[in-house]
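PROTOCOL LOG
Step 1. Enter all chains and additional molecules of the complex.
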Amino acid sequence: MAQSGGPTAVINASIAGVIEEAYKHEQIEEVYGAQNGILGVLNEQIIDLSEEKNSTIKGLLYTPAAALGSCRHKLSFGSKDPAKVAEAQRDCERILEVFKAHNIRYFFYAGGNDSMDTADKVSKLAQQQGYDLRVVGVPKTVDNDLPFTDHCPGYGSVIKYLSTAVMEASRDTEAMCSQPTCSLIEVMGRHAGWIAAGTVLAKRTDEDGPHIILLPEVPFTQETFIAEVKETIAKYGRCVIVVGEGLCGPDGKLISFMAGKFSKDAFGHTQLGGAAESIRGIVEEEVHVKCRTAKLGVIQRAAAHCTSKTDRDNAYMSGARAVQLAVEGKTDVMVILTREGSGENIKYGTGTAGLSDVANNEKMLPRDWINEAGTLPNEKFIEYAQPLILGEISIPHEGGLPKYARLEKHLIEKKCPEYGAK
Amino acid sequence: MAQSGGPTAVINASIAGVIEEAYKHEQIEEVYGAQNGILGVLNEQIIDLSEEKNSTIKGLLYTPAAALGSCRHKLSFGSKDPAKVAEAQRDCERILEVFKAHNIRYFFYAGGNDSMDTADKVSKLAQQQGYDLRVVGVPKTVDNDLPFTDHCPGYGSVIKYLSTAVMEASRDTEAMCSQPTCSLIEVMGRHAGWIAAGTVLAKRTDEDGPHIILLPEVPFTQETFIAEVKETIAKYGRCVIVVGEGLCGPDGKLISFMAGKFSKDAFGHTQLGGAAESIRGIVEEEVHVKCRTAKLGVIQRAAAHCTSKTDRDNAYMSGARAVQLAVEGKTDVMVILTREGSGENIKYGTGTAGLSDVANNEKMLPRDWINEAGTLPNEKFIEYAQPLILGEISIPHEGGLPKYARLEKHLIEKKCPEYGAK
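Step 2. Run joint prediction.
Step 3. Record the structure below.
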């Protein structure tokens, strides 16, 4: 098994699900983890999970980030650069070489679209070569933008944490509103606004923040926004605004780029993460109120101390189900989550979607889940998201802080030549 | 009673301490709270706390921010502007006018240096006028910079939360370090580095973050810093850095200002809060590694979901003790916290310090509590800070989120002319 892309609060729970389920099946003789995602396969850095303590595996159920290590290495079969396509082909062959050397017959990859694409390509090549391999994907992303699945493990926890933080920041802003105050909180989400939208759960009454949520799906128009801020401040003496980092103007350009402050980083890449600062500039110039910003960065996706039990349980179930499917003979699929019923009687289950179908799709927030003004998600969204944050888990503490698990990572002996992937 | 300055996770616990203790004493007939600190006294906006539900008062024990409302209104007796001194004098007289109108004989003010100064001035004027008034301060500040007291209620909780967040962000950075990565987390602290220093508690082994803590007390020198970052990345493949917002260069100027990006806000004030972005620019240009920033803003001081039980209990004790002191006849003092013993056998108690002594002092992080290089607090600091984050409290949840209390705020009838303080 391997983990890929940005960490979450519960991706390790999926890994625990894979491990514990795998040990239940006689067909599976050894359980290995790749160190740092597909890079660990390429470089034959493979962790023998039988060497880990049972308590460490149990600890994965509440430990954030990615215990096996992650990476952003992509197999760029879709690239226009022939050199990159050739490299992807070489990588793919190398992966199979390593699998064969260690008699690896099941491959479970927890990740997002890119990871499902990688898993799909490896499986196809195995089939071409007549090597019996079963490949099953495990959904993972705080962004919640994978298609077919009801939701993605990681999402429920990130919005539970952010809603808690926004609720607390709103109380702070409320306490300080003897003078009109605006509070801006920037959250993740490059294309889809699922994360920003989720903070609406902090709002129990009209006066509670967030008062405005700026979603990447809704083009930012300054006039409408300023009018809304002024109205909110007139009503409550304060305005709490959540900004998705990928917020764009009507021209489709990033807001953070528009304002020019953060346009390029030291490498010349367009940097995200300055959206709240840009909006602050606009609010202070146009509304003349004090404005404070916060930007949670990676803290939000790693906030296991605020894990949703529902999310954690579904993450575990996704991992365990992936193993069952593979043992049953299924391959080239990703586990998806389904829901039946609603409210407190909701029941989650699993299904499957084709790896290649998942790889080329992105699920955006439906426009009819957002109010007409485009400033807040509506009842439809709340009905969807509310159950995902239910339940708290208890984390063992040591010296006043969480006691998270860390794998010892005993590597198995290498059998292939060096490869040197980065 | 009144609350002043920036909110914390536990200032409401101090208020609950005052209220519950006050009802135990026959001498005290009514318990009032000023809406938005001293502003509520000036404008005669006074909350009758007997009208609140008992469950709401109990809820203050885990509700963040400032339930009565806060303010930053100062009595500027020390100003060089004669108009401001005259205004302070008018304010002081008005406060007494309102106290007399409602037969208010005890005044408890929870806040920092400025609040203790205000409380002191009001008390002195009452004495001049022969009005029997007992004034006791309750310490409050996440900054932990009040003198005489062992620590300030609010500090233990802010560093428990930040250490948790830094621990989790460090795991995230660790998971993603297939390529060298630097993570920068900006925390509060304009003058003193107590908050930034507290995040060292997240560090259980050398490889754990934070690897470097940039403290306002230690002038930032780019060469030393860059060398340290390079060394850390060579060793662990990653570097987690905590930056105090008030970090200054060798010339005493703010780093955020030095880099020029955030120099002035829309009102022409020097804006803090850009220190991490400035440091990111330096790291990317000089070390050429990917750098991610996070800035917790007001979220950190309001993070009641991560309250330290020790901090909460001491906050409550400070409030309750203030009432006992006043009833015993004491005035013009602030409650201070004391400690006896160490480690798990530590016992906290209370004492007193003169209001005027507190008002004009600020407690900085001692230089011998920081390592020689100035990059991390040492064992002396850890011995001091560790006990302050011990213990977790259980917060009732509703729909997956904390269920915080909110006062109904029934105002008593006004008896004085309008004043119009802002």
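Step 4. Note key features.
Chain A has 14 helices and 13 strands.
Chain A touches chain B through 76 residues (CB under 8 Å).
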